[in-house]
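Forwarding the complex inputs:
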Amino acid sequence: MAPPGAPRSGDAIFASVERVNAELFTLTYGAIVRQLLTDLEEVEEVNKQLDQMGYNIGIRLVDEFLAKSNVTRCVDFRETAEVIAKVGFKMFLGVSASVTNWDADGTCCSIILEDNPLVDFVELPDTCQGLYYCNILSGVIRGALEMVSMKTEVTWARDMLRGDDAFELQVKLLKQVPEEYPYKDDE
Amino acid sequence: MATTACFIIVSRNDIPIYEAEVGSAAKREDAAQLHQFILHAALDIVQDLAWTTSAMFLKGIDKFNDLVVSVYVTAGHTRFMLLHNPHNDDGIKSFFQEVHELYVKILLNPLYLPGSRITSSHFDTKVRALARKYL
Amino acid sequence: MDPGTTPLGKMLLEEITPVVMVLRTPLVEEACLKNDLSFIQMLSPFCTFSNIDVPVRTSSDQPYRLQKFKLRLFYESDIRQPNLEVAKERLKQVITQAGEKDNSELCSDPPPIGSESEILPSWFEFFNKELVRTVSFSDHEAFDHPVACLLVVSSKDEQPINRFVDLFNTNKLPSLLNDGAMDPKILKHYLLVHDNQDRSSEKATKLLTEMKNTFGTNDCHMLCINSSQDGQIEHQDSLWAPCKSVASPNQHLGCLLNIDDLNEIKDLMQELSSKHIIPYMEQKVRALNQQVSATRKGFRNQIKNLWWRKGKEDTPDSPSGLMYTFSSIESQIRVLGDYAFMLRDYELALSNYRLISTDYKLDKAWKRYAGVQEMMGLAYFMLDQSRKEAEYCMENAFNTYLKIGSSGQQNATRCGLWWIEMLKTRDQYKEAATVYFRICSEESLHSAVMLEQASYCYLLSQPRMLHKYGFHLVLSGDRYKKCDQIKHAIRTYRSAISVYKGTTWSYIKDHVYFHIGQWYAFLGMYDVAFTHLLEVLTCSHQSKTTQELFLREFLQIVQRTGKTFEALKLQLPVINISSLKVVFEDHRTYASPAVASVRESLWRSLEEDMIPSLSTARTNWLELQSKLLPKKYKESNICVAGEAIKVDIEFENPLKIPISISSVSLICELSELDEMTSDTSHSATELWNDEHKLLGDMSSDASLFTLSEVDFTLGGDETKLVQLTVTPKVEGSLRIVGIRWKLSGSVVGYYSLESNLGKRKTAKGRRKPKHSPGNDLKFVVIKSLPKLEGFIHSLPEKAYAGDLRHLVLELRNQSEFSVKNLKMKISHPRFLNIGDHEDLNLEIPDCLEKKTNVEQTDVPADSKKVSHGVFLFPEDISIEGERPLLWPLWLRAAVPGTISLYIVIYYEMGDASSVMRYRTLRMHYNLQVLPSLDVSFTISPCPSKLQEFLVRMDVVNKTSSESFQVNQLSSVGWQWEISLLQAVDAIFPSQSLIAGQALSCFFMLKSLRKSSRTEEKISSLSRSPGSDVRLAPEGNKDALFDICCSPLADFHDCERLQQHELSNQEDTNTVDFILISRPLKSDINPGTSDAPRLFSHHACHCSTASASPISWVVAGPRTKCHDFSVSFCEINLRMIIYNASDAVASVGINTHDSPGGNVQLSDGNTVASGNQAGWHSLSPVDDIKINSDVLGSNVGKSQSPESVSPFIWSGTSSTRVQLEPMSSTEIPLQICVFSPGTYDLSNYVLNWNLLHVNNEENVGKTKQTSGTSPGYPYYLTVLPSD
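Prediction (whole assembly, three chains):
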C-alpha cells in the first residue's frame, strides 16, 4: 500500500514551489494581526480568531500537502508529528522544526521552531501581552490533523516574543477518530 | 569630558516619539526641558532645510549657546534630532545611520503604529549603546 | 520705494537732525511754566517742519530744495552723555508702566496667532527710541553736537544784555564744548521772551532794539507769550502730547497761549531754521569740503596721509580717547559728513565717511571707526543702493562696537536696532531676529525686551517660525521674571502657550504651564493659576521631586484661595474608563458580588428551563412597563428601588508620589415618573452646567437616592479598583452621569462617564453599533420587590475526593412581601445534591447506617420533583419576613480538581401586581477537591465456576497526610453478590490505610441474574439493595452503611451517568462498586475531624465480560478405575455452555481425534520441541489461557510421532446447539479410553456465532460476532483396576 513514488523531502518541495518575498509575507500577516487587534480589542479574542483562521487554512492545506508531498500514510501519531515538523513546516514556511519531549504514551509532543518567518521585526508592545502572535500556526496544525482524523490540542509552550529561546508548539493527541475520512489516499 | 547630548525622534507631525538623554554630563533638573525647547525650536530650521536639500544628514543646523543641533531626516520625514556639544561631530553621522536602521526595524513591526511612541525597551538599550559608542 | 518713508528712514529723519542748545534764564522758564510747559516743550511742537521749502547747495553747484526738516532743542545741561544708571532707570520704568497698561487682558485667553499687528506691543517703538537716546551726545560722532545755540532772556530780567552775555560763559557750557570735542564758537541766536500778562510790551521792544545794537540786528528776536488773559484756551492735545507723554495730561496745556502766540512761535522757529541754521550748516559744509578736498583728496594726499599715519603708528590704541580734537582733520571730516547727512546730501556724507573710516581703522580708533561704519550703513540705506554694502557696514560697526567691550555696548545696541530696522524694511525678519538675539546683553531686562521682539520677528517672517517664536517668548519671559517684571513674563508666556497648546513635548508643556501658573498665583489671580497648573498635574515623565513640587504648588494655590475648586478636567487620578463595570440586579440577583462576575451565558444556560424564556419574560413585563413608562426607557435597564447599583471603576495614580482621594461618589440624577417627560435629556456635552445643577440640588437628590462615598489613598503608580454604589429610593428613571472625587481634601474633580464611554465606543467602531453607550448607565427604577438572599452553611473550600457532607442552604427574604413557587437548579448534581426536607437535621454517618428493618419503600425520588435537573420546592413553601428557609443539601466531592458550583434559585413574587413576576438568585461557590483514595477494580471470570468472578480491588491513598479506614465495599444491584476471599485482618493488617499506602485485595463476585434482561435493566437503575462486605476491622462495631438511602444512591446515579459517558461501551453485564471509608480520628490536622465524616468512592460499569461471550465448563469425573482387561473404558462427561451475550448464539462443538484435526490448533509455534509421550509431567494450572494454548500445541506435537490417539471421542463428533441470551445449556459427551493414563481432553473446538445481533445500541462497536475457541484442558486419569 505504498503510494506511487517515494515521499519527497520538504526541501525539495520548498525548492519547487514558487515563493513570495518574505517581508511581504511577514508584513501581510502582521497587518492581519493588527487589524484583528483593532477590530476585537481583547487579546484573547484575537488569539481565538487567529486559531480559527489557522484551522480554516489547515483543513484546506492538508490536502495540498498530501498532494504535493506524497507522503505515505502515517501509521501513528509519532510519525505524523515528524512529518509535520520535517516536511510540512519546511514546505510551507521554509523552516524545519524538530520534534521532542514525547510523553510516555506517545500522545503528546512538542514541535520546536528555532526560527519563524512570521515574527521578523515583531515585538510585543505592553498593550498586547498575552497575545500569541503565531497562533495561526497552532490552528493550521490542528485543522490539518483533524482532516486526517486526529483530534489534537495545540498550545504554545514557548514563545520567542515572550522572551523564550525558541518557539515550542505542544501538540496533544486527544483522540484518534476511526478512519471514516476521505483521506484514505492509499487504499 | 562631560558631553551633554539629547536625542529625540520627532514624528512627521512634530510629535516626539522617542526621547533619550544620552550624555555623560551630570543631569540637571531643568536640562531636560531646555533641551526640548532648543530642539523644538530647531524644527523650524529643519522645516526650511528639509525641502531645499536632498541630504538626509543636516549637521549643525542650529545652535543655542554652546549646544548644536544636528538632524537626520528620514524619507518619511521623521526627524532624528540630536543636541550635542560642537566638538564631537564625526561620530554623529554614523550614529544617525545606525539609529536609522533600528528605526526601520521598529517601523516594520506590524504591531507598531507609525507615528506612535516607541516604547520598545530593546530599541532604547540599543540606542543608548550606540550613543556610548559614537558620541 | 523712498527710504525716507520707511520706519528706519523716519527714525533717522527724527534722530539725526541739527541740535540747538538752549540757554535761558529762570524767569523764562517761570513764564512758560504757567502753561505747565517748559520752554523747550513749548517750542518743540514747532521744531518739525513738514515743508519748509529751503534751497540747499552743498558740495555740488546746483541747489536742491529741502522739504522736511527738524530741530532738536536741548538745554545746555542735557547736552552730555546721559548717565547710564539714570537711563536704565528710565527704561525700567518705561517697561513697568507698559506692563501695568495691559494688565487688563492678563486673565483673558491668549490671542490666537495670526493677528500679529495687535500682538506686537506698541511700546516697543518708544522703548527702542529711548534705548537709542541713551547713547546720544557721544563724542565720537558729530550729529549730536549743537549746531547753534539759542540764548533766551525774559523781559523781566534786569539788565538783560548782561544776562545774555553771562548766559554763554564757559563754566556753564556742557563738557563737549569745553573739553574741545567740538568747536565752541557756534552760531548764536538771541531771544527775548516777553510775558504779556505782567506788563505791556513797550519795555520789551525797547530792550529788543538795545539787543539789536549789541548783538547785531538779525540775530535777535522777541517772543511774546501768555497773551490770553483768561487761561481758558483749549488746544488740541496732539500739539504737546508727545512731549508730555510721561506726565498725566489732565491739566490742559498751554492754557495761556492764544493763537497769535502760537503763530509767533511758529514764525520764530521757521525763521530760525531756514534763515540761520540751514544756511550756516550749508556754508560750513562747503568750507569744510574745500578744506578736505584740498588736504585729502587726490593721490598725493592719500600717500602723504598714509605715510603720516605710519609715522604716528606708535600711538597708544585708545578706543575713544581724545586723540582727535575738533580741530583735527578727522573730526572735521566727520563733522562734514554728519552735516551733509543732516542736510540729506548722502552722497557727500558717504564719501567723507569712507574717507575717514580707513584712517580710523589705521589708527585703531575702533569706536570712531564703528561709528563711521554705522553712518555709512545708514547713508547707503538712505541712498537705497547696494543693500549688501549697507548691511555689511552695519554688521561691521556692530561687531566693532561689541569688540571694544562694555563702553561700546550701548552703541552696539543702537547700531543693532538700526540694523534690524534696515532688515525689517527688507522683510528679512529672520535675520532681524538673530540680530535681536545678538543684542541681548547680560543685562537681562533689555535682553528680555529684545528677545520678545525677536520672537515677533520670527512670527512675522515668511514662512512663520512658530517654534522659534515660542522659544524666544519663553526665553524673554524667563528674563522678565528674573528682573521681576512678572506681568511681562506672564504676557510672553501666554503668547507662548498659544504655540505650545496641546503640545506633546511634555517637558516644554510642563515648564510653560507650571511657571505661568506660579506667576499668576504670585499676582494673586488664583483661578487662572489653578487652571494652568491643572495641566501639569499628570506628569508621569517628570522626576519624583518635580512631581512633588508641582503638586505642592498646586495645593498651596488651592489653599490660598481658601475655597474648594471644582475642576472639570482634573487629571488626577486617572480614571480607567475601560475598567468600568456596572452591576445591577433586575430580575437576576446575586448572592455575593463575586457571583456577578460569572459569565451571563453560563447563567442563561442554567436558567433556561426554569424561567419563562428570557425574551418572552422581558416583553411581558416590559409591556407592563410600557403602560407606566415612556417608550424611550424600553431599552434601558431595570433596577429596583432600594437595591444598590454597583459601579466598579479603576483609579490610577500616574505619579510616583502618593495622593489622597476622598469622598469619591457617583453623580446621578433621578427624575421621578411624573416629571420624566419634562426632564430634558442631558447630552454629555453640556455636562458642565449639568453637573452644577447636580451639585446645586445634591441635597434634594439625597431624598431620591443615596450614594456611597469612598476614601482612599493611591500610592505611587498604584491602581485601585473602587466600587461605588447608588441606591435609588423612589421609582423613576435614574441616570449615572459621572464620578466626583476630592483630591487631597481640597479639589473636586468631575469625570463624565457618558461622554467618555461615548468616546470609547465610537473609537471602537463597528462592534455592536446598535448598543448605545449611555444605555448601561440609564436605569428605570421600579418599586421595591422582595429579594431573596441565600447562602450555604459550612460549605468547605477544599475537600478530599469522595468526601460526603451534609450542608444546609439558607434562604432569607428581608421584604415583607412573600415569594412563592421556588425552583432550584445546580450546575453539578454530581457534586451537590438536594436533600429532602425531613433529613434537614440528619447527621452523617448515622443517617446512612443500615436500619435493621429495611423497607425499600421510601423512594424520596418521587417526593422531590426533579424535572430534568430542576428541583421544585413544595408549593406550600413561601418565604417572608424574618423566618429563613433552611433546606438540606448533600455535598460529595466526586473527582479531584477545582470545581465551581453554580446554583440558581428561581422564585416568583407573592403579589402578581408587581412589575416583575419572578426573580432569580444566583449563587456561586468554588470547591477544591484533593485526591484521596484511588480505587480501581479488575474483574476476571472464575476458571472453575460459571457466573463467578474474581474481583481485585486496588486502593491507593493519594493524600499527603490523611489516613483512612476502609469500612465497606458494596456491589450495587440485586443481581450481584460480593463476598470476601480472605479475612479482613489479612487484608488490612494495620487497621487503616495511611497516606501513600497502596494495597490490593480480592473478592468473589457472584452473579445471581436470571435470563430476563428487561426487568434487570430497570432494577439496575432503581435503588436495589446490592450486597455489602464489611471491611472494617473487627474492633469497631458500627453498622454497615446503606448504599441505597438517599444521598448515596443519588450520587451513585450521577456517578453512573458520568462514568457512563466516560466509558461509552454498552455492556450489560457490568457491576458497580461503592467503597465507603472514613478518615481516622487520629488525624494530623484535628481541625477537620470535628464531625465524623464519610467518604464514598464509586466505581461503575466494571465489565465482567471475558474475551468471548461464550463460556463453558466440562464437568465429569477426574479419576476413574477401570479394568482394561474387560473392555475399554467409556466415560461420560457434561459440558455446560453459558451465553453471556445479549443475543442468541449457536454453538458447535467439534471433537477430533485425528492428528489432522488438531493441527489447526497447533498454531505454528515451536515451543516444547522433543517428543513427549502420553505420559508427561504437568505444570500446575494457574492461568487458563496460556495453558490451553501451550498444551494444545503440545498435543499437536505429541501426535506427530505415533499417529495413534490415546482416546477417541465417542458419539457424534460434532454437535450444534442454540443458546438463548444469558442462558446455559448442557451437552453430554463421551470418550473411550483404551489404556490407563492421564489424558487431556482438550482436543475439541467450539465454534460459536451470535445470530441476529439486535444492534441498535451497539453500533460502531467492534464486538466480535463469531469465533472459535479451543477446548480447555481437562485432565482425566484412568487407573487400571485390578
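Residues 31-52 of chain B form the longest helix (22 residues).
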